[in-house]
Amino acid sequence: MTDHTVRVLDDGDATELTATDGQNLRDLLLDAGFEVYAPAAKAANCGGRGICATCGVRVHTDDDAAPAADHWHDKLAARYGYPRLSCQLSVTEPLVVELIEKRYWGQLLPR
Q: Which is a Pfam family this sequence falls into (predicted)?
C-alpha cells in the first residue's frame, strides 16, 4: 500500500503527516490532534457523514489541482471556492491542507 504526505498548515505552522492510500482526511487530522470543527461542532457534528458541513478545510495538491469532488457539497465548493469537507476526502495523492479558523458552527471568519 502506498503512503502519501499530507502537509497541514495551521495558523502559520506546518506539520507533515503520513496517510495510507485511501485514508479519510478528517480521521487523519483528528487522530493527529488537529481540530477541524468549530467549538460548538466538536460535540454536535455528523460524525463524518457529510451532512453537517462543519469540517471544512482548504485543500491543495503539489500541482495545485484539488482532488476530484464526489460529494454534492464539495462540487459546490469547487465551483464557488468553499472549503472542502475533510470527511468526504480520501487521501490518494500528496496534499497540502490548510485549516481554517471557525468560531461558530461552520462559520468562517472574514479575511
A: Fer2
Which triple of cell numbers denotes residue 8? Answer: 497541514
Q: Is 46 left (phi over 0), alpha (psi -120 to 50) or beta?
A: alpha
> Which amino acid, 102?
K
Give kind and range of the element (H or E) at residue 96: strand 95-99
Number of Cβ within 10 Å of residue 57's Cβ equals 22
pTM of the model: 0.81
Amino acid letter for position 56: G
Q: Specify the residue for cell string 471557525.
A: 102
Q: Domains in the chain, please, with CATH?
A: 3-96 (3.10.20.30)
| Residue 103, phi then psi, degrees to nearest 5 | -105, -35
* Amino acid type, 32: A
